[in-house]
Amino acid sequence: MKTFLGLLVAVAGAGVAFLISFGLEGVGVSVPALSICVGVGLVLSLVGVGGRSGLQSGLDFAGKHVMRAGIVLLGLSISFVHIISLGLPMIIAIVGLLVVSFLFTFFMARIVGLPGQQPLLMAAGFSICGASAIGAVGQASGAPQRDQGVPVALVTLFGTVAIVALPLLAVPLHVDGNDFGIWAGAAVHDVGQVVATASIAGPAVLATAVVVKLVRVLCLAPMVAVVSGIGRRRGGGGKRPPIVPLFIIGFIVLAAVRTWVPVPDAVLSWVGTAQHALLGVALVGLLAKVRLREFGGQGWRSIVVALAASAFIAIGALLMINSL
Question: Which of 79, 192, 232, 324 has the most other CB atoms within 10 Å of its CB?
Answer without folding.
Answer: 192
